[in-house]
Write a structure and sequence with these properties.
alpha/beta, five-stranded mixed beta sheet, disordered N terminus, elongated, D-Maltodextrin-Binding Protein, domain 2
């Protein structure tokens, strides 16, 4: 059993009971006898990946005949597959772009946007960094802007030591890259290019952890899983330094780096009863899944909206 699964099962006795009830006869969809395909394919954001991976693993406990595969090619890379009809849903750390909307429309792919959790996009440094605790959004822009030549910490702040500043961040297919460049650099996709990019956030973790002066950014869960190796910086957007956390992301004080996370299921796929059952499980247990993935669960009002949005999507699919 994976660590993520152990976390979820330990955190949610109600979910365990629901799984056991389902396994003991609550659902027969795992056999494929209802005409379902028996295979569900999800791709997209590496940030949202832990959420969908937990949902997939635990759904399969009760439905061993259904295979749920979850990829993490990045929000943009995932939408390319999704809009070609190659996947049943796309995980996204930003809203779908106009160009992606058009591509899906051209291929007859219908979908809905479901908000499944809140993230606090986190700027991290090496654990040994004892001089940087808070950066302003202007300093982040100076570091990451398209014309930036900043390569040493003392160029960020003269009080910082003479320490090289290697940079690590998401690749251009990442929704996290799109979001960060938009809110920090003022335009989506605009960034310096002389940094080490990866669609795999664990590679960014390794890069920063292995470089004394390293700096990078990614979703909150990857920091939470690596607090022994990394330090999160507080961010000052004009009202003082604020640390990333569940409370600051929900109350809006961790601005502009708090954001919603999405899953986009296709209407066509939801006509498959197995796909519909999986996403019903995802929605019904969304709060527990978010907690287990170390993300910030939706508020009660947002959770109610998720239930409403998914019911409308099922109705559209005829499920």
């Amino acid at each position: 059993m994976s660590q993520l699964k152990r976390t979820l099962l330990a955190a949610s006795p109600v979910l365990v009971a629901a799984l056991l009830l389902s396994a003991c006869g609550g659902s027969n969809n795992s056999s494929g006898e209802d005409g379902g395909s028996g295979q569900i394919r999800i791709d997209g954001s590496s940030t949202v990946y832990p959420l969908s991976a937990i949902a997939a693993e635990d759904f399969q406990i009760a439905n061993p005949g259904i295979q749920v595969t979850v990829g993490s090619s990045g929000t943009g890379g995932g939408f390319e597959k999704f809009c070609r009809g190659e996947t049943d849903a796309n995980d996204a750390s930003r809203p779908i772009k106009d160009s992606e909307i058009q591509e899906c429309a051209d291929n007859g792919i219908e979908y809905a946007q479901l908000t499944v959790a809140i993230d606090a996009l986190t700027v991290v440094v090496n654990k040994e960094n004892d001089f940087a605790n808070c950066l302003t959004t202007d300093q982040l822009a100076a570091i990451w802007g398209p014309d930036s030549t900043v390569s040493n910490w003392n160029e960020v702040d003269p009080s910082f030591p003479d320490e090289p500043l290697p940079l690590f961040g998401p690749g251009t297919d990442s929704g996290t890259f799109d979001y960060f460049t938009d809110v920090i650099n003022g335009e989506e996709g605009v960034s310096r290019t002389d940094f080490t990019p990866s669609e795999d956030d664990n590679v960014i973790v390794q890069g920063v952890a292995g470089s004394k002066g390293g700096l990078g950014y990614f979703g909150y869960t990857y920091f939470e899983e690596n607090t022994d190796r990394l330090k999160a910086l507080e961010i000052d957007s004009g009202a003082g330094c604020v640390a990333p956390s569940a409370d600051t992301a929900r109350d809006g004080s961790y601005t502009p780096l708090s954001r919603p996370l999405f899953v986009y299921p296709s209407v066509q796929s939801l006509a498959d009863p197995n796909v519909a059952e999986f996403f019903q499980f995802y929605v019904d247990n969304d709060v527990e899944i978010a907690k287990a993935a170390l993300y910030i669960p939706l508020s009660d009002a947002a959770q109610e909206q998720l239930v409403t949005d998914f019911a409308a999507l099922l109705n559209q699919a005829g499920s």
